Structure to design on (529 residues):
C-alpha cells in the first residue's frame, strides 16, 4: 500500500466510521507522517529488525493517527483498521505491541515511553548499532514525574541516538511556564521548537546535527478545543 | 538470627561477587541499579563490562523503565535494589515496562522483610511476593542458602522471562534445593508443612518428632502443586513463608481444589509494626522463630 498524506483521512474513516476527518483534528498526525515518510529507517517486511529505528508512542491516547500512518506504510491492513476497538482486534484505544504489527511499545498509562526509549538507546549503543530511537510524548503527559527521571538520565548518558518529540497543544492543566524545551535544555539536551504542522520544519528538526546530546523536538500545534 | 563467625559470605555479598563474572561471561547481560550496591560492586567491575553497568541514580522508575527498554532491544537486564524500591515504588513500571511489553528481566532484591530492622517500615520488604502475585509470569526464587543463589542466577540470566530473586540476610545451615520444585525433607502422615527459603532450619527444628511431611521450597512461583499433591497424606497444610503471611494459601487451595483441606499461612503479619530492634525480635513478634513455629504446629496439627 503506497498512500499519500491526503489519503490519511480515508484511513481514519475506516476506524471511526465518521465521514469527515481533517488532518488537524489529531495533534500527532503530521509528526507521525513526517517520521514514517522521511525519517524512520523501518522495513515493513522485517518489522523486528534489530537494526531498525524505533518509534515509541508514549502518549498512547488517541492512537488512530498512528494506526492510519502504520496502515499507510503497510504495517497494518485496511481490514485490520476496520476492526478498531473490537474485542479481538489488534487495535485498541491504546496500542499493544504484542498485538499490532509495527508497534514498538504498548502504551496508555502516561509517562512510560521516555524511560523505555532511554533504555533502548543505551542498549543500542552497547550493541554498537546505529539505529535511532524516537519517542513521542504529549505536553500534558510531561506532568508525570517519571519523565523527569528519564530526561535527567538520558542527558547525563549523552544519548545522542535518542530523540523525544513533545506534541505541545497546550493541554497541560497547570501549564509549563517558560516553555517545555527549557526542561530538557537544563539537563543537557539539544532542543528545537517548531510548528508541528510544518513538514519541512519537522524534517529539519529531526535531521539536524546534534552532537553528543539527546535531542528534543517540541512540536507546537493549535490548542486543543473542548 | 544469630550472627555466627562463619567465614562464608551472605546472600547479598555472593550476588555482588557473582554479578561481575556473569557480565563478563555473557555480553547480552546488563546490570541496572539505582545507587544501592554501587559502592560494593565498583571495585569488582572490569573495564570491558563497565558500559553494561548502568547506575541511573536514585531514580527507581527510570531503573525499571531503562531495564524494559534494554530488554526490548534484546538485552537481559539484572536489576537490583532493596525490595520496597524494586517492587513497590516502581510497581507500575514492573507491570507495564516489563510485563505488558512482553519482555523479561532478572530483579534481585536484598534485605528480605526486615533485614535492616533499624531501618523501620520504609525499608521493610514483606509485601514484594504478594505484589508480584498480581502480575503475570513471574518466577519467584527465595534462596535459603548462598549455594542456591548461584544456580538461581545462572538459570535466570540464561532465559528471557521475568524472574525475581529475593535475597535474605538469613540462611539455612545447608542448601535444601538444587533446582526449581519442592524438596521432600521429612515424610509423615498427619499433614504437610511447606517451608520457604531461609525458614527451613527452624521449621525442621519445630517439626522434629512430629508425624508431618516437610517440603522445602526455594522457588515458590511457580508453585509446585504436583509435589504437594503427590506427598499429601492428611490434607492439613501449613505454609511458612518469610514474607507477608498467607500469600501462598491461594496456591494450596488451587493445588488441592475439590478436597476438604485445612490450610494455615504463617509469615510476616500484615500491618505496620513500627518497631526497630533486631531481626530476632521481629522473628519472635511474627512467630517465625522456633518457639513460635512450635506453638503454631501444636495448634494446627494436634487439634
Amino acid at each position: 500500500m503506497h498512500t499519500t498524506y491526503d489519503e490519511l483521512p480515508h484511513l481514519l474513516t475506516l476506524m471511526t466510521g465518521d465521514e469527515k476527518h481533517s488532518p488537524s483534528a489529531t495533534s500527532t498526525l503530521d509528526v507521525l507522517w513526517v517520521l514514517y515518510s522521511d525519517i524512520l529507517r523501518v522495513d515493513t517486511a522485517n518489522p523486528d529488525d534489530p537494526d531498525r529505528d524505533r518509534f515509541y508512542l508514549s502518549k498512547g491516547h488517541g492512537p488512530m493517527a498512528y494506526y492510519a500512518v502504520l496502515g499507510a506504510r503497510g504495517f497494518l491492513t485496511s481490514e485490520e483498521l476496520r476492526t478498531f476497538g473490537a474485542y479481538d482486534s489488534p487495535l485498541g484505544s491504546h496500542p499493544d505491541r504484542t498485538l499490532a504489527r509495527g508497534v514498538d511499545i504498548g502504551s496508555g498509562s502516561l509517562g512510560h515511553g521516555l524511560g523505555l526509549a532511554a533504555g533502548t538507546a543505551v542498549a543500542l549503543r552497547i550493541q554498537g548499532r546505529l539505529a535511532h530511537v524516537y519517542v513521542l510524548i504529549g505536553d500534558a503527559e510531561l506532568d508525570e514525574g517519571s519523565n523527569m527521571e528519564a530526561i535527567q538520565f538520558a542527558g547525563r548518558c549523552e544519548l545522542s541516538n535518542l530523540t523525544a518529540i513533545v506534541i505541545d497543544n497546550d493541554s497541560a492543566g497547570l501549564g509549563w511556564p517558560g516553555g517545555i524545551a527549557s526542561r530538557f535544555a537544563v539537563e543537557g539536551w539539544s532542543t528545537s521548537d517548531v510548528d508541528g504542522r510544518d513538514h519541512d520544519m519537522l524534517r529539519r528538526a529531526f535531521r539536524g546535527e546534534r552532537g553528543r546530546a539527546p535531542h528534543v523536538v517540541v512540536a507546537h500545534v493549535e490548542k486543543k478545543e473542548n | 538470627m544469630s550472627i555466627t563467625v562463619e567465614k562464608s559470605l551472605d546472600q547479598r555479598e555472593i550476588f555482588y561477587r557473582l554479578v561481575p563474572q556473569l557480565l563478563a561471561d555473557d555480553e547480552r547481560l546488563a546490570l541496572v541499579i539505582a545507587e544501592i550496591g554501587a559502592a560494593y560492586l565498583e571495585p569488582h567491575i572490569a573495564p570491558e563490562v563497565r558500559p553494561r553497568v548502568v547506575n541511573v541514580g536514585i531514580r527507581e522508575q527510570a531503573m525499571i523503565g531503562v531495564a524494559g527498554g534494554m530488554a526490548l532491544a534484546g538485552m537481559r537486564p539484572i536489576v537490583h535494589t532493596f525490595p520496597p524500591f524494586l517492587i513497590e515504588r516502581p510497581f507500575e513500571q514492573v507491570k507495564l515496562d516489563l510485563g505488558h511489553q512482553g519482555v523479561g528481566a532478572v530483579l534481585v532484591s536484598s534485605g528480605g522483610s526486615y533485614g535492616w530492622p533499624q531501618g523501620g517500615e520504609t525499608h521493610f520488604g514483606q509485601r514484594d511476593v504478594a505484589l508480584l502475585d498480581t502480575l503475570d509470569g513471574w518466577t519467584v526464587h527465595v534462596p535459603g542458602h548462598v549455594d542456591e543463589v548461584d544456580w538461581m542466577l545462572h538459570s535466570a540470566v540464561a532465559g528471557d522471562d521475568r524472574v525475581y530473586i529475593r535475597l535474605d540476610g538469613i540462611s539455612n545451615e545447608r542448601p535444601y534445593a538444587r533446582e526449581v520444585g519442592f524438596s521432600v525433607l521429612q515424610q509423615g502422615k498427619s499433614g504437610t508443612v511447606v517451608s520457604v527459603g531461609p525458614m527451613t532450619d527452624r521449621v525442621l527444628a519445630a517439626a522434629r518428632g512430629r508425624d508431618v511431611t516437610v517440603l522445602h521450597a526455594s522457588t515458590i512461583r511457580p508453585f509446585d502443586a504436583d509435589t504437594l499433591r503427590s506427598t499429601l497424606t492428611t490434607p492439613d497444610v501449613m505454609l511458612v513463608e518469610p514474607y507477608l503471611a498467607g500469600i501462598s494459601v491461594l496456591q494450596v487451595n488451587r493445588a488441592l481444589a475439590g478436597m476438604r483441606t485445612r490450610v494455615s499461612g504463617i509469615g510476616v503479619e500484615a500491618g505496620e509494626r513500627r518497631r526497630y530492634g533486631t531481626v530476632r525480635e521481629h522473628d519472635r513478634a511474627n512467630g517465625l522463630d522456633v518457639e513460635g513455629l512450635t506453638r503454631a504446629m501444636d495448634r494446627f496439627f494436634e487439634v
Summary: Chain B is about 35% helix and 20% strand.
